[in-house]
Amino acid sequence: MEYKGMPLNWCDYYYKGFGKVKDTYGLELSEIELQEAVEILKSYNPRISGRKLEIAPEIIFSECIANWKNKPNVENVIDAFFNGLSLSAEVFDFSVALLHKCKSYGCKIACLTDLPNGMPDSMFKKAIAEIIDLFDLYVSSQSCGVRKPNKEGLLLIARTFDVDVSELLFIGDEEKDYKTALNAGCNFMFISDFYKSLYR
Q1: What angle do CA 44, 2, 22 make, to 5 degrees?
Q2: How far apart, in whole angstroms, are the C-alpha atoms of residue 150 and residue 179?
Q3: Which of 20, 36, 134, 144 has its CA 20 to 30 A from that of 94?
Q4: Predicted TM-score (pTM) above 0.90
């Protein structure tokens, strides 16, 4: 899946998100306060910082708004921020077909995903609601505590299914997915942007 129109790095959209928080709650925030929040969120962005551990959204956003006066609770800030990004999730048709085919063959299916910076697990699960029930196991960077290319997510999947990690086939569309499989010692299949474009 992907969020339509969104690049891999969302930093350029952070100001828009915090602007939505400001407007939603009628906050009197200066340009400096907004930019400080943006810079703090950028510092947590794994595509910039290279951080390997997952950090709870509440911790990230609490730091972003720490100096704001009369601020709403952090859960409301998170909701308004991501609403401000006008995200539209697209689950590729080939993904749905592939999942159903794997199910018909009796395969066990797990999802391993890195969440967008600061996004709650519950929000991402809503985005993939049409396919989440097809997974025998859902693992996110939040639920396993680490981000790809750390192998722990794949090891967790192997343990849950009581198989050796080498028996897994990990399918992904980024270099970090390949590195994750390499680090874990399992097989990997790459889905290219060209292949995805055939099913739009």
Answers
A1: 50
A2: 8
A3: 144
A4: yes
